[in-house]
Write a structure and sequence with these properties.
Layout lengths: L24 E9 L3 H14 L2 E9 H12 L7 E4 L6 H5 L7 H6 L1 H4 L4 H6 L9 E2 L4 E8 H6 L8 H13 L3 E3 L7 H15 L1 H8 L9 H16 L15 H7 L3 E7 L2 H8 L1 H6 L1 E4 L14 E4 L3 E4 L6 H9 L4 H9 L19 H13 L3 E3 L1 H4 L2 H16 L4 H9 L3
Parallel strand pairs: 1-2, 1-3, 6-7, 9-11
Antiparallel strand pairs: 3-10, 4-10, 5-7, 5-8, 5-9
Helix pairs in contact: 9-10, 9-11, 11-20, 19-20
Length: 419
């Protein structure tokens, strides 16, 4: 898998450059600023050693990234390459013909086609076309638990919804909050609806929504999902103060580490959060499992939700198209995958499984990889799959649902009204 690309020019793209144009120049690449950015910084440095066209990495603070990217893409100086989540996060740029369609490039290059897990590659596109190359690790949502707390209370990780309810009841009876939840940030609440809807109705329900069919919010599985959320809240599964607890800053995670909560549904980055904030707990007390099956639902218990990966997309107006392609294709190299593993990430490359022994936590890395590899469906986080305006309204309604200000029926009605 050593990288040795022979890249053809993008003759089909407007603004394509001649080989003379490619000899020198600069490409700007915007990236979400967090602890993982060091891997991309190293990749840029390596690329620039041999390329006449240099990549300049622009690191934008995470909390400001989406807003600043939208403004930049509407300006006279948009980035040439940019980090995104695929799906709805790029819809406005696709609609505005601002992105390079990479479908033919990927299909024509067998080494690139075979480099990544198919479900992850597909999630980076829209309407069956590929607009992004995976550039970070997979980020499935995982059910984490406090192993010490479970052992002390003679509990086992739940594999069915009835088991989860039983475990929660036991914990509540002993004055232990079943689930830590950073409700102040809202998006951690979203994860509960994502998994419940998948288990109850399968991935097809949200896929219809993501494809623009707002009537699919009226599917009976959506109402049942909202009702289960309201039941959990009313029974105290998240405690009474979750609405004021943030996830950012490690607050919710510390509740789990200190034994004040027994479980937390969170993206796989929770391990890195715990390793940073509560290192001893991360090494010996943190457990993980998949989301349980739910009643008579039609969804496959092997399905996962979350962020299949993050992606590099190329601006169709970028001057140095060939160099931009060379750079994003380098994400498929074995060296880059190894750098992700060393950072604690699980690459989305098809051969990543054999590299995971060098991960900071090989067991957790292997769990993630096998879970995603076996998943029939990997649903992109709803707030990334939907257009920004719809996602904002949705998160507001979800916050109201958890806070008891919006009933399950009202939630469904509000969602059906989204256009």
């Amino acid at each position: 898998m050593a990288l040795a690309w022979t890249v053809s020019g993008c003759a089909s793209q407007s603004g394509g450059s001649s080989s003379a144009d490619e000899e020198s120049g600069t490409l700007t690449a915007w990236i979400y600023g967090d602890d993982s950015v060091k891997v991309q910084q190293a990749a840029v440095k390596e690329f620039n050693k041999t390329s006449g066209v240099k990549v300049k990495l622009v690191i934008v603070p995470g909390a400001e990234y989406a807003t600043k990217l939208r403004a930049a893409m509407a300006s006279a100086s948009p980035p040439d390459i940019f980090f995104n989540w695929g799906g709805g996060s790029i819809k406005s740029y696709v609609d505005g013909n601002q992105l390079v369609d990479l479908t033919q490039v990927v299909n024509d290059d067998r080494s690139l086609t075979n480099a990544f897990l198919a479900s992850v590659m597909a999630a980076g596109g829209l309407n069956g076309k590929i607009y992004g190359i995976p550039m970070r690790g997979m980020q499935p949502v995982v059910l984490f638990y406090n192993k010490t707390l479970f052992a002390a209370n003679h509990l086992k990780p739940p594999t069915t919804w009835s088991q989860l309810q039983s475990v929660s009841a036991t914990l509540r009876s002993r004055n232990i909050t079943p689930f830590a939840l950073g409700g102040k940030d809202t998006w951690p609440e979203l994860m509960w609806l994502e998994y419940l809807l998948d288990r109850l109705g399968g991935p097809k329900v949200f896929q219809k929504i993501a494809n623009g069919d707002s009537s699919a919010w009226g599917d009976p599985a959506v109402l049942k999902t909202a009702q289960l959320v309201r039941q959990m809240v009313s029974e105290g599964d998240f405690g009474s103060r979750f609405g004021s607890v943030p996830y950012n800053g490690g607050v919710a995670s510390t509740l789990l580490a200190k034994g004040q909560a027994a479980m937390q549904l969170m993206g796989s980055w929770e391990y890195s959060t715990q390793l940073s904030k509560n290192p001893q707990f991360a090494k010996s007390g943190l457990g993980w499992t998949t989301f349980p099956s739910v009643g008579n639902g039609t969804g496959n218990v092997a399905d996962v939700v979350g962020n299949p990966s993050n992606y590099w997309s190329i601006n169709s107006g970028a001057k140095h198209q060939k160099a931009a392609l060379d750079f994003v294709k380098s994400m498929a190299s074995q060296n880059y995958a190894e750098a992700l593993v060393e950072n604690g990430d699980v690459p989305t490359t098809a051969i990543a499984g054999v590299m995971l022994t060098s991960s900071p936590n090989p067991d957790f890395a292997s769990f993630q990889y096998v879970t995603v590899q076996r998943a029939p469906s990997f649903t992109l986080s709803w707030d990334q799959a939907l257009p920004a305006d719809q996602a904002t309204t949705m998160l507001t309604e979800i916050s109201g649902l958890f806070a008891g200000k919006v009933s399950a029926t009202q939630f469904v009605a509000a969602m059906k009204a989204l256009k």
